[in-house]
Write a structure and sequence with these properties.
This protein has 148 residues and is of the alpha+beta class. It is built from three helices and seven strands, in the order E-H-H-E-E-E-E-E-E-H. It has one domain: Alpha-D-Glucose-1,6-Bisphosphate, Chain A, domain 4 (2-Layer Sandwich).
């Protein structure tokens, strides 16, 4: 699964960068993020994502690791987790690329992921659609959080 979206954020990359590291505010921007905590500052995090995909509800504890940070231009992370009830395994890589624009920041969000197990059996189309919806909602919430 691959999804990408460009979002205009009405603030400079330098002003957006601290928001990207604010765990409670970022958790509020992520659809389905039930909890998030910093394990090692700017390196490792734990989160729990809850989603309903088709007929399946899942709650996935995720280990999140920052794999690249180039302030205030680029942030990349990897996340892995397994829902113990459903047996779905998720791995993903997310990149946030910030570029100055006349109106603020053009944020290019990209995500690549793999879903295995019962959830993966639903089919690529259902998972792809859910990922696109979640990414669009994340962009809307992040743009709103940056205006606060």
């Amino acid at each position: 699964m691959r999804v990408a979206r460009d979002v205009l954020i009405e603030t400079s990359p330098e002003a957006l960068w601290p928001l990207l590291w604010d765990v409670p505010r970022m958790a509020g921007c992520l659809p389905g993020c039930a909890e998030a905590e910093e394990v090692t500052p700017h390196r490792r995090y734990r989160a729990r994502m809850t989603q309903k995909v088709g007929p399946i509800s899942l709650s996935v504890p995720l280990d999140v690791e920052i794999v690249d940070a180039d302030p205030p231009r680029r942030l990349a992370l990897s996340a892995r987790g397994r829902d113990p009830v459903v047996g779905a395994e998720i791995s993903m890589r997310v990149t946030l690329d910030c570029e100055a624009a006349p109106e603020g920041t053009r944020l290019a969000i990209g995500a690549e992921g793999q879903v295995l197990g019962k959830l993966g059996g639903l089919g690529h189309g259902v998972i792809q659609r859910k990922a696109e919806e979640a990414l669009a909602e994340f962009g809307r919430r992040l743009a709103a959080a940056a205006r606060e």
